[in-house]
Sequence to fold (857 residues):
Amino acid sequence: MNKHLISLQYSDLFTYRELINLMEVYKSYENAWLKLASSRSLFDDQVREKKVKDFLNKNSVQEVVDNLLQENIYPLTIYDRDYPVLLKESKSPPLVIYTRGNKSLLQEDSISVVGTRKPTPYGRKIAFELSAYLADYLTIVSGLALGIDSEAHKGALKGSKKTIAVLGSGFHYPYPPENKELFNNIIAEGGLILTEYPPYIKPDSWRFPARNRIIAGISKGTVVIEAGIKSGALITANYAMEEGREVFAVPGLITNTNSQGSNRLLKDGAHLVQKYSDILEALAVFHNFKLGSTDKVISDGQGLIGFLDGGPLSAEELAEMVSEPIESILFKLSLLELEGKVARKSGIFHKV
Amino acid sequence: MIAKVLSAAIWGLEVIPIEVEVEVSRGLPVFLIVGLPDQAVQESTERVRSAIKCLGVPFPSGRIVTNMAPADLKKKGPHLDLAIALAILVHEGVLSQKQISNKLFLGELSLSGNLRQVEGVLPVSLSIDKLKASELIVPYFNLNEARLAKNTISRGFHNLKEVVDYLRDDILLAQDNNKTEETITVGNELDFEDIKGQRLAKRALEISSAGGHNVLLIGSPGSGKTLLCRAYPTIMPLLTEEESLEVSKIYSVSGLLKKGSLIKVPPFRSPHHTTSTVALIGGGTIPKPGEVTLAHRGILFLDELTEFRKDSIEALRQPLEDGQVTISRVWGSLTYPSRFTFICAMNPCSCGYYNDSIKPCNCSPAEIKKHRSKISGPIIDRIDINLEVPSLNDKELKNDNPGESSKLIRQRVQTAREIQQERYKNEAFILNSQLNPKAIKKYIHLSGDAKKLLEMGSSRLGLSGRGYDRVLKVATTIADLEGSNMVKAEHIGEALSYRINLSYE
Fold:
């Protein structure tokens, strides 16, 4: 944990660019902290200079971090191992994120589900059901806003409870206040709340688009359900496209103004969501199918394929060759078949 | 005076009390039977007349009317002979009404008065209390069968004279001992360990036996399909007492319970492919049980499935789905149980060698298509385990490694069945194959990976809703065989492999 970076970011006295420059100039944030505290006239602006000096002299890095931890807020810097990999790869990843809840979700594949704050009943229903379905495979990321965002979180909580809410404000001021209960539920039921802003930052309209870049950046893909032509959800979709992530849109009525943005995404080449499993297909979650720790078997069927190089064989012949019970051979062949690596014809397996 | 004697008629598997009444009045000598008798009952007049003469009792002259109540039920079979003869004897004063009260009589008479074996003794014996009788009198040859019902007092006699002696003077036969012999007949010499190779098919049949799943085997001639299926009964657990009575009753009604011992081994029925639909499903003027009912709690094996008449195969839909078959005729409708495991085998094409690794197939694509289209989708839909059995190559034929013995497999099956019985103790069904969608939700627990794999399988392979459930059911049985209380990915993976694409590609 880079306490100096956390503290510098926590002060909110430096812009994103400046923090990066500090690293480049002083090689480490600890070094930067010492230099800033000791040297004179680093800033043109006298008022700012005084503010920085005051902050650096009054606070110790340990105190800043301890206070955060005391509030159950766990800060992560971009240099930490726990920092989500996809977010790190995105264009302007936050240097520090503040989290509360189940941190393990940051290591899992996720998908963001976003849309208008004023959805139709249809939009609400789809957001809820789609998230409940996808939550079995992926973590659902959204922005805790009213409308589609809320339904997405609720749907995920109904399913496997894997959900991440990204705030556009600090932990002391979760926005919108109507979703206070949902905010608490997400933490209580094993979800995670995440923000790049220190706890005392109040919501501000310009912070929400910036928040959207985190939503897009952390996810493998973004699903837009009902977005108007100027909806913030389109900003998220844009970020996702720029990062080269998959964008999905749920088609809506052309007479519905709140579907114009999402329909336009479709026109521009987003994936059309015809059924929920389309998303899993496109994200190739299936390709990455790995058996977790719950089932202690070796799922690796790669070895079997080698035997098929010499020509097609029956399951029985394979079982004989590798001296394994027939049932485990069948299981491995099923997996290989699903992965499209072998094909079956009249009980004989061929390598594809 | 009008004499009354109690007997019984079988209607389906149900027993209905019959009261035989005889009245003799003055008039031209004639012997009439009323109360919807069939030909066999009608003809009993001659047998009864001769039998009574042989007893040394003069046959009454005059107009004899025999009535069988209830009058609206069609009576069939010769088992009412004894009751009619006794009713006449009571009327003639040879016996008193008191001597025959509370007793129920079944038996066919020969002209000399000997009692011959009859059908349907076991159901009557089992429901003697309902018939308001306390003692059952049957031909001696049926005595063992009658005594399978432990709480019934049964007596067996060789001829009419012995019956009369017993009723009048309480003389019992010397060899009468109220004991039944318990014999378990496992009349199958074929053992799984004698069948070479075929580990895949053996495994599939083990799963089928454990969960009661229907199986279709497709393979070239000589690949061992028939042999395997014929050995199937050896890996099935013996019937429970309740099941055993249920099955024995059916066999008794059909006149197939010859030895007079309970059927303990699950029945194995393998009708030839020329069999008619009626023989398969049951029927006749008064419907008799068909093969599906005779296979109840056991196996119905249709070898060369494609050679069966199409309408015969299609007629299996209802019995397969409901576990019972309802046959309607002019006289009314009858329902017989038919909860069997359906095992069938077929060739992949009409010459039999399509996709065979050893011999070439000389069928045209159209022929193959036609051959396969003989089995309709709805039937395939009811089969949980589909399997293609590749023919054995030389190496496997020479392999002398014995496989597992049937006994060993049966023990595993038994254990898996006990797990199911415990799990479904509050339900009407007992096996995984009988799970309905609601019960699947309630009882089947998937691990996370299993869920993922199933989801992946269903979207990749385009499983139908029914297909999805089928995989779940088979996977549950596989889990039960392993003693795992949760269905894991490897179980789903294996279950996914027991499916088949019948369309010609």
